[in-house]
């Protein structure tokens, strides 16, 4: 009796006992987060779950089995006792049955324990142990059954003993089968729900469903019958993979290294991963052992001799393949679905959590008044990361670490598989296997050498790609400026130059890939040649079919194992680099809010010095570092305080220091801090305002991509009455009437659907609505017109909603705010020039000095009194005040869309034509087909070679070769004895070399087509996007466009070619395999047809669902990056409001939304691989059965050929389906590119005949009957307006927000084509001129300053067109540099003075110009525009963010130096245009007044007069008009 059926169950039983002991004694001291999943559902709250019946069945079978084997043991002992005298005692039999009794008795104990109610928590674990024991017993029972019947034929036992043994064997087989079936199908728990959402059944399903991934079947059905899946169709992922769980487990070990934290947080996953890896490695070559025995059996077996050994071999191959593929499925489930998902979730969450705490270097978008870090930029970069870098950490580095988490076990299974493979090869080939292995080791360094070059090429490629994408990002961010200046062609050429360098590097990468593929294909050939040469020529052995095909199969498997090693090493290296990058970021400085003392009884500074950058005690301040020193300020609580000063004086730095967003060098700062968990308001709103809460209104409004209402409430409960009062106070009700969806209008990315004034008022409304007692407002009035500013000051900032609230207001509207202010701080060059109570400053005359400075020296004695009187004026038109605010339903909000269904044929056609036409694809098909044919010839010749050494006495020689139809005469000619070993060897080498050449050629040909497609598609996309109308950029998020140029072209450049080549390769391989096996056994064609139907069915439902999962995975990534981008932009606002916890929770939910489709996608891959591999194993088994049925006409060579092909068939068809799904997803990139290729285009850039070179020579502008609407279905914005601006005239355009001021400028530059009417410039209709000619001849200075990353020089002179002196002269014009005389008089600076960074043209400018103040950005853009020297200059709120004094200087400069130019100025500040020649007043798209300022302000009934009255600066404006009138009279 063999011990084979007793030892495996015994080993498993002992292992189970050991694991249970370890599990019982395990003490996990780390704090665990409790699962929030429940077993109750809304539809069925009372769910009952019980496995008592199943546990009883298992216990009963264990008792029966123990009794059966105990009876058998007693019977055998009695029989052996009787035969002692005859010396027939067999201790092996007794020991064999005793081991089985031990196993079943142990199982009985486990089954009894599992039924104990007090040990229910162990039920799942104990059932898993029983399942493994029962399954092992079941598999061994089949061998026991066979052995028993063989013994019954050849044995020496009595007939009664034989019959009893047979009965026990049959009962053992049946009971083991039932026990296995019951245990393996027992659910591990009841269905789970997460707030009504079903949890994926993989968390509680039976072990059978778990290892076969049958839990995914329901999702596949849903995908098959629906047009497309959405996130609501997906079950919740297991609780241990939820972002909140992963982040909790990860942050527990925050003081440790990142690698340690990853290991500790995922220890249980890594243990399962390790166990399945070792099990897979041990099983890997077991099917090959059965193959060798099968071929050996065919080779040595005489014809027509019955035996079951052949069937045993192929059945053993079937079972071992089943176990191997199930084990591989589990290994990759724990690696990809569990470990990768967990790592991605925890790293993204931790990076985001860090960004909420990190130093405010890049996060000063909220807006720093002056962060002149200049040459200190490198130090600054060490302290804070850029948005792009952190986005890369989340998008690239976490993905690299996640990818390596799947592959790290290669370092475990590779040595195990290598050892086993070498052992088998040595048994087959002897010393030849050593030589073969040495050859393999010699070739590996060459592979690594190519891999290193490929990696270097990839790094260079990534740099060019990053450069191109960054350049594209800057183009998209500044597209308005680029179009206004007609720079499209120049920027296009700049992008194409970088793209050409990228494609050259991509070509080098393709060369490296071709070399890599050459080595990869040549390696097994060289190894095989060396192996067979040594085995036959050196050792003098004959090459038989069993040795040839078995050794080649082993080496092919080994080749895949070793081929992965360089990639895994490379992934490991990349993962280490990524870990270091992330760890560096996580260890970087954090906001040190403890420096700010949160004492609510005091707000201000005590002898404090602050700067933007952080310095240690031993660090020296940079000469370019802007520092505010020795601040001693105490703001009154519950009152309004004003902070004023010229542009760049440090106003924002002062405010941000109060919020703790800067670095305290010395002294103390006092300011409250909003707690993360604030007290909930009661229903009566009595405790709404809290003393420890803060609100912040940034200079650049921070708005989330959500509805206006959501941005105003900002996470607080919606209180209708308070909300309406806030909307009214912030003058938003009229805007809501205009907006189609009212207050539920989506503001879009960075608030693109709103004007600057609307964004600022929404930001202010958020602060007013908040529960904060203390509110900081950074220059919120600069973005609105004078009328609105007056309203905001009266009804909002000093209105009833702000009573008893501390308000610290930075403003240039000092006259408007002075009357209500309790405290004033005036700054200059980073120093406090004047500070104190308003009454004290009034009495001392200091307030008049502040006002005089703010008004550029205009001295009015009664200015304070006048402003006080004017603040009591009411709005002339208050009808809308009484109007009910329209609040619309949430149902109007739109949802994001993404493509559904399969890729359209036109997308395939676009890719096919981009690669090449008929000849290209004809050559591709020819190369792939001939390459596959050469591979078949390889194996066929090996079959001929192995058959040539047959011993005719023992082996069957066939008269016909079914593969290529060689007759007996031809075969005898080939196989005759006259051919030496060299003949077969040399032809084999020739065929393999041709195969290698063709294999590499097909890839090179595809790479050639791919480069062509990449160049054509990118150039077409760039041309279409850069020529798209401005509305396209206003309605399309920048991230979406960048995704086309970034991720989509990365797929097109690299991934698409690889997947396409792999798909074609596997399809041709699959067809060749079917033909070869069918040629050997004709019956196989029927089996292949049946299995093909199954494969096609499984492949179709997989491809559809996988496509949806990949799309969802892609779509759900964007909200993560959008949320992160919004967080970085508004980090100061978020921290001020104490909303970091809420934003963190939102990010965790978004990470879960992204991890759900990713988890499902990975698990779907396991679902497919398990089914395809099981079908492939069955197909191999059937092929083996057909061979056994046809032994009379099949020799060992053909059998080896057929079986070697059959064993790889499942991989070929599985990868065909997988590659097709990946190829189709890659085509989604083509689909998205093609979508953008169909966008509308602007008018022609050049229209012949072109205007004269001197046009416009006079600057006359005539508008006739102009009707403008943004789209045909919308109401007109300008209503048939007509006016004329004469050459060299200075005209101001004023009006309320939404009156159509900016629409005039858009029309003039043809960003909007008129529905009716015309615009003439110097007598030429602008619609007859190409937009490039039109825009290049005009100059506009837009409201939003757009700067590019680089230097002051590169921003002023983008294309190096001007001399250096011209650049300095332009900076002096806008007063960023002092005049030459002033510069000479101020060459010496004291230690306390801050350096002017504009003196150095090479001073770095960060992306968007975030390292200089908003006002300085506007002045720099103004300097750039003035270099152009056009005849017509249009200024659109170009000086809104600078102080009045500077604005007055700029206007004087423009009047002085551009006296021969036509100036059109759109302004909210009436003071900016009050001394222009004429004023154009707009209201609701109509021209209501167009006259000189003197005539308009002299008419008390004019709208302009009312606007001047409501501005709070009527006397100043009137004085300016009179002054100009007198000057003109005197000149006359």
TrEMBL record:
SUPFAM superfamilies: ABC transporter transmembrane region, P-loop containing nucleoside triphosphate hydrolases
InterPro entries: AAA+_ATPase, ABC1_TM_dom, ABC1_TM_sf, ABC_transporter-like_ATP-bd, ABC_transporter-like_CS, ABC_transporter_C-like, P-loop_NTPase
Segments crossing the lipid bilayer: 6-24, 56-74, 94-114, 126-146, 269-294, 309-328, 404-425, 431-450, 507-535, 918-937, 987-1008, 1063-1080, 1086-1103, 1170-1191
Pfam families, alphabetized: ABC_membrane, ABC_tran
ABC transmembrane type-1 domain residues: 274-574, 922-1225
SMART domains listed in its UniProt record: AAA (SM00382)
Main location per the UniProt record: membrane
ABC transporter domain sequence ranges: 603-854, 1261-1509
Subcellular location: Membrane
Protein name: Bile acid-transporting ATPase YBT1
Organism: Rhizophagus irregularis (strain DAOM 197198w) (Glomus intraradices)
